[in-house]
Amino acid sequence: LETRKSWLNSGPAKASVCRLCRRMGFIPVDMGVLSASLDVENMPLHLFPSWRLPVLLSLALFALFYLYNFIRDVLHPYLTAGKSAFYKMPIELVNVTLPCAALVLLTLVYVPGLCAAFLQLRWGTKYRRFPSCLDKWLTQRKQLGLCGFLCAVLHMIYSLCLPMRKSARYKLMTAAFKQVCKAGAVRLGGIMAIGLLSLLAVTSLPSVASTVNWREFSFIQVTLWTTTGYFTADVSL
């Protein structure tokens, strides 16, 4: 058994097997020593391992911002002035919380790239391995971006459903003459932002990203992200 194991873990034996696989039309992947075979066999049984941390982070951000908005808009007026604003919890507070979580998630998509570029400039080489935390962060940028895109889409849906409530319609009617231009600019910025985010989400798919070169992909990601951030900041202000 030990002799067989030593042969299977030898480099020439692996090279021979890889050459045989290439001749047969397959793409060989070296997953390490023989003891790693159990992990390879369990890979098809894993349930979205790369999505666990982004989803948990998205839920944590949503809960944090929702708690802050609840204390500021509902609990504080109730304790200080006796105003009951608990009706805002199902729709209005969620609608205010979603863009906050989306902005933070989209920021987390591009921050690790800046950190990686800074480390490469500091080290003077691009062949040195990043720290494990930064490396894991870089590999989960797509999941973070899609979670942020989901929050932005849900914010758009909640914004469309918000005028259906009677209290919201009353507020819109009383402030219609004061905020016509501002409301139009906000809607325009929101429409442009969700459109650009949709384009960013589509271009991040492997089937689409493989059809463009590196310069085109960088132009789409950097330029569209900057433009999206501008429209998002305009809506927030």
Automatic annotation (TrEMBL):
Q: Name one GO molecular function term.
A: cupric reductase (NADH) activity
Coiled coil location:
none
> How does the protein associate with the membrane?
Multi-pass membrane protein
- Is Transmembrane helix tagged as a keyword? yes
Q: Which UniProt keywords apply?
A: Membrane, Transmembrane, Transmembrane helix
Q: What is the lineage of its organism?
A: Eukaryota, Metazoa, Chordata, Craniata, Vertebrata
Q: What InterPro entries is this protein classified in?
A: Fe3_Rdtase_TM_dom (IPR013130), STEAP_metalloreductase (IPR051267)
What's this protein's name? Answer: STEAP3 metalloreductase
Q: Where in the cell is it found?
A: Membrane
User: What sequence ranges are listed for the domain Ferric oxidoreductase?
Assistant: 100-224
- A Pfam family reported for this protein in Swiss-Prot or TrEMBL: Ferric_reduct
Report if keyword Membrane is assigned: yes
State the superkingdom.
Answer: Eukaryota
Membrane-spanning regions, if any?
A: 51-71, 92-123, 143-164, 185-209
- Which is one Gene Ontology cellular component term of this protein? plasma membrane
Quick one: where is this thing mainly located?
membrane
Q: Name one GO biological process term.
A: copper ion import
Q: Which family does it belong to?
A: Belongs to the STEAP family.
